[in-house]
Amino acid sequence: MGTRIFILYTGGTIGMAPSDPANPNSPLEPKDWSYLQQFMPSIRENGYFSKTRGIEFTYHSLDLILDSSQFNTEHWITMAGIIRNNYDDYDGFIIIHGTDTMAYTASALSFMLLGLSKPIVLTGSQLPIFHPRTDAVTNLGNAIHIAGHKAFDMPVLPEVSICFEDRVYRGNRTIKFSTNDFKGFASPNYPPLVELEESIRFFPQLYNRPAESDLQIMNSLDTRVISISLFPGMRAESISRLVGDDTKGLIIHTFGAGNVPCTPEFIRAIEEVRNNGITVMFITQCYNGSVELGKYKSSQVFRELGVVSGGDMTNEAALAKMMWVLGNFRGDEISKKLLENVVGERS
Ligand code: ASP
Question: Whose CA is closest to atom 8 on ligand 1?
Answer without folding.
Answer: 99
